[in-house]
Amino acid sequence: MLSLFVFPMIIINSGLITSIGILFICYIISGLGMAGIGMGIMHDAIHGSYSSNKYVNKYLGYTMNLIGANASVWRIQHNVLHHTYTNIDQTDDDINPPSVLRFSPHAKKYRLHRFQHLYVWFFYGLSTVSWITSKDFVRINRYRKQGFFSKKNEFKTELAKLIGWKLFYYSYALILPLLILPLAPWIIILAFLSMHFVTGILISIVFQVAHIMPGVEFPLPDGNGILEGDWYAHQLATTSNFSPKNGFLSWLIGGLNYQIEHHLLPNICHIHYKKISGIVEHTAKEYGIPYHTKRTLAGAVWGHIKMLRELGRMTPVAATALRN
User: Fold this and answer.
1) Cβ(250)–Cβ(302) under 8 Å?
2) What is the pTM of this model?
3) Are residue 178 and residue 254 in the same domain, yes or no?
4) What are phi and psi of 135, to 5 degrees?
5) Residues 168, 239: one domain?
6) In whole angstroms, what is the distance from residue 11 CA to residue 3 CA?
């Protein structure tokens, strides 16, 4: 996956490309590699599950920075908030999209949401563009206010690193090609955006079909901020697997078709999820806990579309109504 991203980028920065078609092909291939890095390398590494060696995890986690995002911000957004408060409105940052999208029955509904199952793909495609521009800065500031980065000068240090890594990313992914390639700047920028559109679509589909699905729950805490049930039951109720028998797909997306196992055991490397899944499913059924799964990726995407359509039409559900 690193080669799939790096080699086309080297070709782009060689200055030898004169064909618009070749330029787009190279950027799009890098986009596939970027998605692979996100799902198969940095995701495990930042969870500490890529290797038993913490330094291997630490430095492979920086591949997130290499592709324009930020490992420190992701660790809080994903490892802490998403994995702890899965599918809880206003707390799980993975289901707190811009106002044009509605991912929770508790979120405010606008008329535009009736069509979100049609236009959501455009915003999925732009999701990594948001990462490399504004999202990391907005979130690092918000997380600071929430009490993260609380050590002396920690926030300033992380902000400086964030800026430095982004400057490095832009320098080789966009600025250098603009300077050396004998093509119009708007064409190079469009090819760069096409890379991110491919990455955004792929990553968004894989992560969103795991949680925004028919049958999964969107729990809310009671008036005292307490959730009913235990954390493990919560993960099973809010998460869904897909394509459990597709070994090639599982390899391609870093085992993220086994999202249930990942949420229950995030510190275990994804290569073990398939063997673990049978035990988890059997135990869930034994205790009457739901074990959501879709047989194919296409079925999962279709279920996601239906759920988006339903969320775009249903009236917001109040916490009191949910408990009743």
Assistant:
1) no
2) 0.90
3) no
4) -60, -45
5) no
6) 12
Residue 235 belongs to what H/E stretch? Answer: helix 231-238
HSE, side-chain direction, 13 A CA sphere, residue 296: 3
Task: Please give the structure tokens belonging to residue 87.
Answer: 């599918």
Q: What dihedral angle (degrees, nearest 10) is formed by the CA atoms of 26, 38, 290, 228?
A: -140
pLDDT, tens digit, 9 for 90 and up, residues 83-138: 988 999 888 888 888 899 999 999 999 999 999 999 999 999 999 999 999 999 99
Q: Give the pair of three-digit tokens for residue 73.
A: 């911000």
Q: What is the dihedral of CA 305, 308, 310, 315, to 10 degrees?
A: 180
Looking at the fold, whether 163 and 263 belong to one and the same domain comes out as no
Distances (CA, A) of 300 to 11, 53, 142, 169, 185: 36, 35, 32, 33, 39
pLDDT in tens, 209-259: 999 999 999 988 765 455 666 889 999 999 999 999 999 999 999 999 999
Same domain for 187 and 235, yes or no, is no
Position 55, amino acid: Y
Phi, psi of 227 (to 5 degrees): -90, 140
Total of domains in the chain: 2
Angle between helices 297-311 and 185-208 (to 10 degrees): 90
